[in-house]
Fold:
Amino acid sequence: MDISKYLPLESCTIDLAGKTKEEVINSLTGLLAASPNAVGTDPEEIERGLLEREKMGSTGFGKGIAIPHCKVDGMKDFALALGISTRGVAFDAMDNRSVHVFCAIVGPPEEPEMHLRLLAAASRVLGAGKSRYEMLSSSTSYALSEAFLYHAAPATALDSSKDRTFNRLLMVVVQEEEVYNDIIELFLEMGLPGAITHEGDMMGQILSGAPVFAGFLDVLGSSQLEPRTILALVPGDTLDEIITSIEEITGDLDNHRGACIIVLSPDVVRGSLETV
Structure:
C-alpha cells in the first residue's frame, strides 16, 4: 500500500484555517477536494459526510490528533489531507484536549477494507510521539507530507495481500495494551489477512490464588497486565520486513521486556484464517 498516491502536496497545510470543528472540517474539505483522486466529487458531499460522521462520535482520539473520515458515493479512489492547527481546535476529543494535528480520509463506500487500512496507518503514525513532533515542527507543507510518509513507510512497503502463499506462522505475544493496539493497527495497515488474537494470564496471576506460592510472586512477576497473542500466517520472504515494522513500535526486542516474537514453520496448512 503506497499512501503517497493518496496524499498529494496540495492536500497538506501547516496553517489549517478554522476556530471551530465546523470551520476546520470546511478547510479539510477544501484540501481533500484539491486531490486528483477527488476530481468530479462535489465538495459539499465530502463536507456533509465528514460532519455526519462527527455526529456518530468525535474522531478526535486524544493526544492532540483527529482523523475525520467518511465514505462518499461516486468517488473512484481515496483522498487524504493533512493539516496543522497551531492554536488548536476544540474538537470534542476523548481527552478533552485541543486538536492540533488533523488527517482526513475520504473514499468510495465499495472499499471498506482499504478504508480501514488507511485509518490504521493514520492512527499509527499520528499516535507516535516522534512523528507527531516532527509534523508539528514542519515549516512547510512539503516537510509535513514527508514527515507523515516517512513514518508510514515501514508498513506501507509491505502488502502481503499480493502474495497468497503463506508458509510461516507468526506469533506475537504482547503485555502492554498500547503496544498491542499499535501492532494490531500495523497488521491491518499491512493487509495481513486473518490475524487473530488470544488473551491469556500471567503465571503469577494464576498462582496468586494458591497460598503456598504467595511469597514467590515477586519473583514470578506481580504485573496485572493481560498478555495477548497475535497469530497470523505470513509469507516467509516478508518476515524480516514484518519484524522490523513491529520493532518500530516495540523497540529492539532483544532489549525489551513484555513482548516476544515466535515464528513457526507449519508442516501443513489447509484453509484460511481470513474472515468469511
In short: The beta strands are 12-13, 60-62, 65-66, 69-71, 79-89, 99-107, 168-174, 196-199, 228-234, 259-264. Residues 160-164 have pLDDT under 50 and may be disordered. The first strand starts at residue 12 and ends at 13. The radius of gyration is 21 Å.
